[in-house]
Specification:
By secondary structure, the chain is an alpha+beta fold. It has six helices and 15 strands. The longest helix has 16 residues, at 59-74. It is globular and about 50 Å long.
Length: 301
């Protein structure tokens, strides 16, 4: 171990050297507003992770984010809509290589095994809200999923079946549960929690959802004002290689109403307060996979 510390809850955290070797641990956000967009040819309204034009379908989401920011500036109380006093996270935090390629392969292999998860819920099994779900496109039809929120976006709820993910993938869960305790002062270090805590009810009880998302060509999450309402902290782990497996699909957050497209590689994670606005740009080719975990607010359980 290179360091030990205590979280406010008294959980022992250990930092291991392998997480600090070879790669920068935090990714400084770059604001497209801070760049000379007028000097580009053609002029762009915002930039994606590769410095090209950001998905124009996100313009409505950006307008909503800007309106919300302006309203917060005019709020006489001066208080932000999102309280991060206890969480210590004022914005998104990139955690490099949270999961290895081998851990990702294990997750996808176990989730895709025959007889483990459905390929879409029967309509009789759906809630009233879920009855509006769509049918997935051909590229996603055979992938494990409960629902298709559009023909290019499906989701599998892996916290179901008595916390299936936690039981079947303990090593990956240990990495992810530790990352959910990461703080800015750790400089991108990924904590590894005490094993007794990770396997305890105290560790699992706050988990609201563990989701596997597939986005095919044309799929996106561009809803204006989208946030993970009712949760305190969210982590999204990229399970696909953006250099070979898909194009488009930027993970976008907003800083003072300005869209920030985060550059992530396979296995990287983004950790953020759940109330922060965020979107996924449109996939232009291939399939983008991600793992999303949300925790309930600490005062609600």
């Amino acid at each position: 171990c290179t360091n030990r510390s205590l979280t406010p809850s008294g959980i022992v955290i250990k930092f291991f050297p392998r997480y600090f070797e070879g790669v920068p641990q935090t990714k400084k956000m770059e604001s497209s507003a801070a760049l000379d967009l007028k000097g580009l040819s053609p002029p762009y309204w915002a930039l994606d992770r590769n410095k090209n034009e950001l998905d124009p379908q996100l313009k409505a989401a950006q307008s909503a984010a800007h309106r919300e920011y302006m309203e917060s500036c005019n709020d006489s109380s001066g208080e932000s809509k999102t309280s991060t006093e206890d969480f210590e996270l004022q914005g998104p935090l990139i955690l490099k290589k949270l999961l290895s390629d081998e851990e990702i392969d294990e997750i996808l292999c176990k989730a895709s095994a025959d007889g483990v998860w459905p390929r879409g819920l029967d309509k009789t099994e759906r809630t009233a809200q879920e009855k509006s779900a769509k049918e997935p496109c051909e590229a996603l039809r055979s992938a494990p999923h409960h629902l298709a929120w559009s023909d290019g976006h499906i989701v599998l709820y892996m916290h179901n079946n008595d916390h299936w993910f936690v039981r079947e993938l303990p090593l990956s869960w240990c990495r992810i549960r530790g990352a959910l305790e990461a703080k800015p002062w750790m400089n991108g270090g990924i904590p590894e929690l005490d094993q007794d805590f990770v396997s305890s009810e105290e560790s699992i009880k706050p988990v609201r959802t563990i989701e596997l998302h597939h986005y095919a060509t044309g799929g996106n999450l561009i809803t204006p004002g989208h946030r993970d309402c009712g949760s305190e902290v969210t982590i999204s782990v990229l399970l696909s290689d953006p250099s070979t497996e898909y194009t488009g699909g930027d993970f976008v957050t907003y800083s003072r109403g300005v869209p920030i497209a985060h550059k992530m590689m396979k296995g990287d994670a983004i950790l953020f307060p759940s109330e922060d606005l965020h979107n996924i740009g449109t996939i232009t080719s291939g399939v983008r996979l991600s793992l999303v975990v949300e925790l309930y607010p600490s005062k609600s359980y």
